[in-house]
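Batch job 17 of 40 flagged for manual review because the log was empty.
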Amino acid sequence: QVQLVESGGGSVQAGGSLRLSCAASEGTLSRYSIAWFRQAPGKEREGVAFTDNFGGTGYADSVRGRFTISRDNSKNEVYLQVNNLKPEDTAMYYCAARAGYIASLAEFQYNYWGQGTQVTVSS
């Protein structure tokens, strides 16, 4: 079992950057595939990036080239670097985990979730 805690959100102007962190208070993240999701008010939650437990990565078309997911297994953390932010990136961002290998942005594939960190982008 793993418990996830997100941090690093904030309010930025369009074009700005943030680095979101997903830390495990319990469990070893290197054993898990991790994904970042986001949910804007009134919209469904969508997957934006994943890293599988072998280090492979994938991105949603809407963020490819602007967002980068990475891991630091020594710190038991996963990061989402978000650059060139746009107002439409405003959302609550969640990290999610699944034990073992999965290369997916489908919400139902992940069974451990953090509480989220808010990102607000102003124009």
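Reviewer: the log was empty due to a logging misconfiguration, but the result itself is present. Residues 12 and 121 are 5 Å apart (CA to CA). Unflagging and moving on to job 18.
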